[in-house]
Amino acid sequence: MEFDDFWGLKDRDWSRSGLTLAEGALLVRRLLASSLVPESILCLPAHEAEFSVLCAGRCPITVLSPAEMDRWAGFAFHRGVIAIARRPEPLSLEAFLTATPAPRRLAVAPNLTDPENLGSVFRSALALGWDAVAVGPSSCDPYSRRTAKVSMGAIYAHLPVQLPDPGECFGLLEAAGWTSVALSLEEGAVDLEEWVSSGDGRAAMVGGLAAWVGNEFEGLSPPDRSVCRTALVVPMAEGHDSLNAAVAAGIAFYRLRYPTRS
């Protein structure tokens, strides 16, 4: 496979191709350490030795001059190395719930449409010990260049879980004994801190917990909201009524990790 075959592809084209593009030494290192199958690597001469070792013959490596690398990337901020890898098959919710060791925390982003927010959700959830992030058909592409970059390569380390329709999702989570909570500004939402310290909250946090993060503008759809038993809101100072979706999610992921850490 030659890199020139992918010259000028837009993000939507990458989504259809079955491939993903990693830019920068850090992301390529994390990609090569993951289960993704690399197809090809471009790098500057200074990176050839390192990535030849990390690649271990799994795919061809093409060494380019700085000018050639800038031309291919379309900009000068590629940080010296770019890799193309095959996208893995998504993980089903059923397979996730029955995995060994048993998972206990799932971040759910059924309809986030901003790549930076989705990348931040992946990065925060996984850095805070959550087992995976689930995405729905309305979500933006988790393997897009921007999402992968903002996630700092977290997308490569933990396969996205593919959400079924809300009815099936509710059935699977309930059957597994999981509790679903919506991170929502809706009327009647419970203060996150109060819920964490309440008997109901602490009991729910002992078992499996799924935290649902809604769309940046519309929140969770009614079908998705119906999966969740309760809505939680991050308390804010007077005069302020909202936070960025990814920021609010990161705060909630920290507070909802485990009751012993509360």
Description of the structure:
It is elongated and about 60 Å long. The strands form two sheets. An eight-stranded parallel sheet has the order 5-8-7-6-11-9-12-10. Strand 6, helix 6 and strand 7 form a beta-alpha-beta unit. By secondary structure, the protein is an alpha/beta fold. It folds into two domains: 84 residues, 2-Layer Sandwich (60s Ribosomal Protein L30, Chain: A), CATH 3.30.1330.30; 171 residues, SPOUT methyltransferase, trefoil knot domain (Alpha/beta knot, 3-Layer(aba) Sandwich), CATH 3.40.1280.10. The chain starts with 10 loop residues before the first helix and ends in a 7-residue tail after the last helix. Helix content is 37%, strand content 19%. Helix 6 runs parallel beside helix 13.
Total number of beta strands: 12
Counting helices, strands and paired strands, the structural category is alpha/beta
CATH topology of the largest domain: Alpha/beta knot
List SSEs in N-to-C order: HEHEHEHEEHEHEHHEHEEHHEHEH
Summarize the structure.
The chain has 262 residues and is of the alpha/beta class. It contains 13 helices and 12 strands. The protein has helices spanning 11-17, 25-32, 48-55, 66-73, 93-97, 115-127, 145-150, 154-157, 166-175, 192-197, 199-206, 222-225, 245-255; strands spanning 19-23, 37-43, 61-63, 81-86, 91-92, 105-109, 132-135, 161-162, 179-183, 190-191, 209-213, 230-233.
Which helices and strands, and how do they pair?
Elements: H1 11-17, E1 19-23, H2 25-32, E2 37-43, H3 48-55, E3 61-63, H4 66-73, E4 81-86, E5 91-92, H5 93-97, E6 105-109, H6 115-127, E7 132-135, H7 145-150, H8 154-157, E8 161-162, H9 166-175, E9 179-183, E10 190-191, H10 192-197, H11 199-206, E11 209-213, H12 222-225, E12 230-233, H13 245-255
Parallel strand pairs: 2-3, 5-8, 6-7, 6-11, 7-8, 9-11, 9-12, 10-12
Antiparallel strand pairs: 1-4, 2-4
Helix pairs in contact: 6-13
